[in-house]
C-alpha cells in the first residue's frame, strides 16, 4: 500500500510540473508576442526574396528545340553544344549543327522508327479480325466463288447470303443440265491450315440438306468444298483420298 501511495504522489508532481511549464510557455509567448511576430515576418520576407531571386537568376535550359515524333517516346534534342558558330558573307553570326551529331541523331531516330514500324505491322498481322470483318470476307468469298461457277454456265443460288446461319452449312447451290453442286466456301487466310473436321462436318450437312429437300434426291448431286487456304493437315489429305469421288476439294485463292 505504501508503494502505491508513493507512486501516485510522484505522478501528481509530474502533472503539476507539466501544467506549470504550459502556463510558463503561454506567459512567455504572450509577453514576447510582438517580438515573435516580427521574427516570423522577417523569416517569411527572406523566403519570398530568395524565391524571387531564384526565378530571376535560375540557369536557362540549353535546349534550342525539341522535335517529337508523334505517338511515340522518341525525342531529338539538339543543344548548343551540337552547333558551331561562324560568320557568313554578310558578317552575320549563324549557327550550324555539327554533321557528326546530326548523322548520329538521324540514324538513332531512323532505327527507332523502323523498330516501331516492325512492331506495329507485326501487331496488325497478329490482330484477329472482328466478327463483322470475318462475315464480310466470307460473304465476299461466296460471291467470288459463285461468279466463277456462273462463268462456267451454272445457275447459282446464294443460299448462305439469303439464309445466313440458317443455310444448313450449304453456301451455294450451282446447277446445270447435268448436275447440282452443293458448295461450302471457306474464306481463310492462306497461312491457316484447313482441318479434317470441317470437311467431315460439311459431308454431314450435305446429308441433312438432302433429307430436308427431297426434290434434290432425283438429281445428280456433287459435293464441293472450296477454300482459299493452300494448307491442310495430314488427316484431311488422308480423308480426301479415302473419299475419292464423293467430294471435290478445290483451292480457289482470294
Automatic annotation (TrEMBL):
Gene3D superfamilies recorded for this chain?
3.40.1350.10
Record's keyword annotation contains Mitochondrion? no
Q: Which residues form the Restriction endonuclease type IV Mrr domain?
A: 138-207
Alphabetized, the UniProt keywords read: Membrane, Transmembrane, Transmembrane helix
InterPro entries this protein is in? Restrct_endonuc-II-like, Restrct_endonuc_IV_Mrr, tRNA_endonuc-like_dom_sf
User: Where are the membrane-spanning stretches?
Assistant: 15-33, 39-57
The UniProt GO MF terms for this protein read: DNA binding; endonuclease activity
Q: What top-level branch of life does the organism fall under?
A: Bacteria
Query: One of this protein's GO BP terms?
Result: DNA restriction-modification system
State the name under which the record lists this protein: Restriction endonuclease type IV Mrr domain-containing protein
